[in-house]
Amino acid sequence: MTTTALPVVLAGARGHGRWHMENIRRLQHRGVVRLAGICELTPLTEDEIPRGLGSPRQSADFGALLEATGARIAVVCTPIPTHTDLALTAAAKGVHLLLEKPPAPSFAEFRRMADGVARAGVACQIGFQSLGSHALPAIRALMARGAIGEVVGVGGAGAWARDEAYYRRVPWAGRRRLNGVDVVDGALTNPLAHAVATALALGGCTRAEDVTGIETELWHANAIESDDTSCVRVTTAQGRPVTVAATLCAEHPDEPYVLVHGSSGRITFWYKQDRVLLQRAGHGPEEFEYRRTDLLENLARHLTDGDELLVTPDSTGAFMKVVEAVRQAPDPAPLPQGAWHRIPGENRRVVPGVDGLVAAAADTLALYSELDAPWALPAVLPEEVSTR
């Protein structure tokens, strides 16, 4: 490790924060960054800190820790409602940010964060790791040269499984609000947020002003406030719909994907695998695998070498309009008792047939109610969506 490694403070080192610690360790070994501090309400034990990271300073006081360590970067991986205040604390001290997704629980909080960061003049990267995939520019190049004809829309599908303990791991899990504060921890806005953000990115709809309307359908099989089985259709300024269907109650969980529909073909992107399938008229199927740029490394290179940031706050404005539509929608409806069952031994709830519905929604750009799901309510009518 060289002396030029940028000091990093990690806020939120348990849960998904463990992934960030391992990633920091990987980059520390390469001399890109070094872990200078950990911010947790309860300090990590020695056994909780991976080998090779030394003994970083620990404190529950985020601002004081940033000052004491001389941090250049803060990685914020804390509960969703805390993102904005922690980001602004870092920005006020001139510390650059990698902010976990979703960046905020409401569009107003998102704007407060993004505007504050911009005024402070610090760099902010939003943690949609899939948007660092080299597959995205490759897919855009295929689209631009007409490989699948005219692009008519983009679908996204995420059929995952979460057991009932998932919703008991932290107080805010599966909540729309907690103690009067927005949380919006639903399938579309958190676990499968990458499917939404990636579909919007490939649909050319990234900024808030690119969104003209949003329809949502939200349900839950689990005993939670938020949605675990849901879909959304975004009307874009380009006129091409983006439909994403998600469930955490899949019968057979599988890799999520985004599907670009063209007039003479389609492109399937399994974004967690950086794998692309091109299918087009007059050609056999072609499959490609790509690498990806790590977002923390990209942020570090932005600071040291001037590399362009991959996921700025403004480029997630369209995703945040979806979060806002989910937040403002009527509370998700519970699925009727006969629409789900528990799997013995797995302590999780399954919605029979939902895997096929998720795939069909991505394939047809239709909502669950339009696919005659027996439990689906009529779709919420699209409305004009404010860009501010």
From TrEMBL:
Gene3D superfamilies reported for this sequence: Dihydrodipicolinate Reductase, domain 2, NAD(P)-binding Rossmann-like Domain
Oxidoreductase among keywords: yes
Domain of life: Bacteria
Domain GFO/IDH/MocA-like oxidoreductase: 139-267
All copies of domain Gfo/Idh/MocA-like oxidoreductase N-terminal, residue ranges: 8-128
Keywords annotated in UniProt: Oxidoreductase
PANTHER family per UniProt: BCDNA.GH03377
Name used for this protein in its record: Gfo/Idh/MocA family oxidoreductase
Source species: Streptomyces cynarae
